[in-house]
Amino acid sequence: MKAHEFEFPEDRYYLKNHVWLKTDNGNILIGITELGQSLSKGIVHIDLPETGESIKKGDTLVAYETIKAVSQIALPFDASVTEVNEKLWEDPNIINGDPYNEWIVKIKGELDERSLMKVEDAVEYYGRLIAKERERYAGIDE
Fold it and tell me: From CA 110, how far away is CA 117, in angstroms rounded?
């Protein structure tokens, strides 16, 4: 499904902080949405957790730095890190090339679906967000 020109695959859940979650053989893959990566172009550094590390609900799982800002990924549930995408140590910017196939970390945890958005909800939420931002900046280039 799409929110404006940004794709949101139907096989995952979403958070309001531009993060997607996808179940995968008992694990949960975590990544950044296409919209999130377009806002995060130029990732220059990423702090990944250690495999085996336990992350409490609301604590930082991953932090990444772009040329504009530092962003953090936190989850609305407890999790344990089962694997990190080792390629990101060398080139964190690969997330921008293929945001739905380049995951950041794999975790184990109990998904609390009440705190996650299904694709329909995510498309509606992000669609409103994009429209509001475009309206806010309309006419600036004129």
Answer: 15
Polymer length in residues for the chain: 142
**Domains in the chain with CATH codes:** 2-134 (2.40.50.100)
Q: What pTM was estimated for this model as a whole?
A: 0.91
**pLDDT averaged per 10 residues in sequence order, the chain, 142 residues:** 95 96 96 89 88 97 89 95 95 88 95 92 95 82 56
**DSSP string over the chain:** -EETTEE--TTSEEETTTEEEEEETTEEEEEE-HHHHHHT-SEEEEEPPPTT-EE-TTSEEEEEEESS-EEEEE-SS-EEEEEE-THHHH-TTHHHH-TTT--SEEEEE---GGGSB-HHHHHHHHHHHHHHHHHHTTTTT-
